Amino acid sequence: MSMQAVADALARLERVLRRRPETGLSADAPAQAQWSGPETPLRVVCRHPNGREVCTDLPPELGGGGGQVTPGWLYRAGLATCAATSIALLAAAEGVTLETLQVEAASQSDACGLIGLEDEGGRVVSPVPTDQRLVIAISARDATPAQLRSLVDRALQRSPIPLAVRANGLAVQVDAA
């Protein structure tokens, strides 16, 4: 699909949503994670309703097999791909011809938090990734660097996962047998 086809699809969607905004609300496809069992105790298979699967594991130093990506990497991959997609969507809608677009999501994690250790002050170390950052390289033949920075800023204000990282809480339901 060309960037023009993307722009056309977005324009059609906008016309529909302006007439009937309620059609924009839909349930997101669930991600279903299944523990692989005691033979591979830290491997988890996540399935999309369309049948696609992604396996995760932890590195050997944490007891995993190390042959798959980690859940933390999937988190960063989701963050980076969502940001890149939002930037590409806005570029298409505005007729900006991208030449390059690369988004790197990076963070720092402390394994002490993963296993519940305390710091020197007796506080439990947080397992939440810190120093989260997106590094975006972008170029277009028909836009100045200032215009591209503006496009990126506006796209990130529409990008679901980067915004969720900043804002939303998480509801948890546990069905234990």
Q: What does this molecule look like?
A:
This protein is of the alpha+beta class. 36% of the residues lie in helices and 19% in strands. It has five helices and five strands; from the N terminus they run αβββαβαβαα. The chain has helices at residues 3-19, 71-93, 111-114, 145-156, 160-167, and strands at residues 32-35, 44-47, 53-56, 98-108, 130-140. A hairpin with a 5-residue loop joins strand 2 (44-47) and strand 3.
Distance between the termini: 47 Å
Domains (count): 2
Low-confidence stretches are none
What structural class do helix, strand and pairing data support?
alpha+beta
CATH fold name of the largest domain: GMP Synthetase, Chain A, domain 3
CATH C-level class of the largest domain? Alpha Beta
Task: Note the overall shape.
Answer: globular
Helical amount: 25-40%
Radius of gyration in whole Å, from Cα?
20 Å
Annotation, overall tally of beta strands = 5
The whole-number mean of residue pLDDT values reads 91
Describe the sheet with the most strands. Answer: 3 strands, antiparallel
User: By CATH's scheme, which homologous superfamily of the largest domain applies?
Assistant: K homology (KH) domain
Write the layout of secondary structure elements.
Blueprint: H1 3-19, E1 32-35, E2 44-47, E3 53-56, H2 71-93, E4 98-108, H3 111-114, E5 130-140, H4 145-156, H5 160-167
Antiparallel strand pairs: 1-2, 2-3, 4-5
